[in-house]
Specification:
431 residues, alpha/beta, 6-stranded mixed beta sheet, 4-stranded mixed beta sheet, 12% strand
Length: 431
């Protein structure tokens, strides 16, 4: 499944760290002066074509209105992962002022490197961030109580299904029975038995830490009503709810309804899998290739859609401490996350601005693009990765236990999750 993949290089960054000052940004008079300074700045954009197009028009609009504070935009330089490139730029002291592709999972590491600027330090910074983001903002606050990232865009994960495959298996394509674990398993067995697809669904079975965001974590968020993997410094995944999710996926693998083999293409587009677990960024990918529908991720008891949470799959904006003209950078950040620019991003990419009431804010867009309405509804109920120290190492610790037990059946899933708790708790408490 094509996703804007992080790679193992980010794991290496999280595990090894980089020799740098602790804390969020440089301090003292230099930081105070930089916060007021204005002038030219550079920003980095992801290499997603739609986001690049959005970024170019945003920069052009800013530069037209502010010729003395010119913004130069470029795509993130190529590397094993964008996070590795950003980490290296922090170390070298040449990171740009703003990066419009900051992974929430990497924020604690970048903060530890001294690479980020606390947005609370700007006049009205906290109020602006929280007023634009609403109650969701709390998930993006760092352990020191400050914000080092501006929530930007989400891709709430849902279950996509291939209507032709479902029809071949004699399954209702308008309201497929996928809400409960029992329904999902029964539907999956029908699909495979009817040879509508080789597998019902094909989450990546590889061991990279971030793969859990597209199998376990969305269902855990749904089952728990919105809990994160770690809360208040303690692992949550070995709860009764977490073990139910793990048992569901173990059955999917044990019954050959999901594959243990890595797939190099897009299993959903190729027809190898009848379902995919992904967000609205993929709609453009599936256009004219798959006749699809989408439903919320399942829960054990079948919660109503209006009560179902999922993983956000968000990318945010952060300001980096190498920036000298932070006064301009702060104003550009606000301009780029304004209602108008959020709307342009939605129009260009179909990704959901991380704002309260997205559907109500852009009614014309959703009237013209009804396929995206359900993602706007789901965007109101998303769960982010926990913003805790050693975030990447925590996810890898969890993934190791999950892969061994759930995917490959080498250990009881419940016992494996219990066994990972102590190590995760220790990691979450370290500075």
């Amino acid at each position: 499944m094509k996703r804007r993949k992080l790679t193992a290089a980010l794991l290496a960054l999280g595990l090894t760290g980089v020799a740098a000052a602790c804390g969020g940004s440089d301090g003292g008079g230099d930081a105070d002066a930089a916060a007021q300074a204005r002038g030219e700045i550079t920003v980095w954009l992801s290499n997603n074509a739609e986001e690049v197009a959005w970024g170019k028009q945003m920069v052009a609009a800013w530069n037209t209105a502010h010729p003395e504070e010119k913004v130069t935009a470029q795509e993130i330089p190529t590397g094993k992962s964008s996070e590795e490139v950003i980490g290296a730029a922090i170390t070298a002291g040449n990171a740009p002022c703003l990066i419009f592709n900051t992974s929430p999972a990497s924020v604690s590491q970048f903060q530890k490197q001294g690479g980020l600027v606390a947005l609370d330090g700007f006049d009205g910074g906290k109020d602006y961030l929280e007023s634009r983001t609403g109650k969701t903002a709390e998930q993006y606050k760092s352990t020191d109580g400050k914000y080092y990232q501006m929530p930007w865009k989400a891709n709430p994960v849902m279950i996509f299904y291939n209507k032709k495959a479902f029809a071949k298996a004699g399954i209702d394509t308008a309201k497929p029975p996928l809400a409960t674990y029992d329904e999902f398993l029964a539907t999956s067995r029908k699909l495979v038995a009817a040879k509508a697809a080789k597998f019902a669904i094909y989450p990546a079975p590889s061991n990279e830490f971030y793969q859990s965001w597209f199998d376990f974590y969305p269902l855990f968020a749904a089952e728990t009503g919105g809990k994160q993997l770690v809360a208040d410094g303690k692992a949550q995944f070995a709860s009764d709810e977490g073990k139910k999710v793990a048992a569901f996926w173990r059955t999917m693998y044990a019954d050959k309804l999901a594959s243990q083999e890595k797939y190099t293409g897009d299993s959903f587009v190729d027809g190898t899998a009848a379902m995919a677990i992904v967000g609205p960024w993929a709609v453009a990918t599936y256009k004219n290739k798959v006749e699809w529908g989408a439903v919320p991720v399942p829960t054990s008891a079948g919660k109503p859609a209006a009560e179902t949470y999922t993983f956000s799959d968000a990318k945010n904006v952060a300001m980096y401490s190498a920036c000298k003209n932070r006064g301009t950078a702060w104003d550009v950040l606000k301009f780029a996350t304004s209602k108008e620019q959020d709307g342009k991003l939605l129009e260009a990419s179909g990704q959901m601005p991380l704002r309260d009431g997205v559907a109500a804010a852009y009614p014309e867009y959703f009237q013209k693009n009804p396929d995206y309405q359900q993602f706007a509804d789901q965007a109101a109920r998303t769960v982010e990765v926990p913003n805790v120290p050693n975030s990447i190492t925590i996810w890898q610790t969890f993934r190791d236990a999950y892969s061994k037990s759930v995917i490959f059946g080498q250990e009881d899933p419940g016992a494996a999750l219990d066994g990972a708790v102590q190590k995760v708790d220790q990691l979450a408490k370290q500075s």
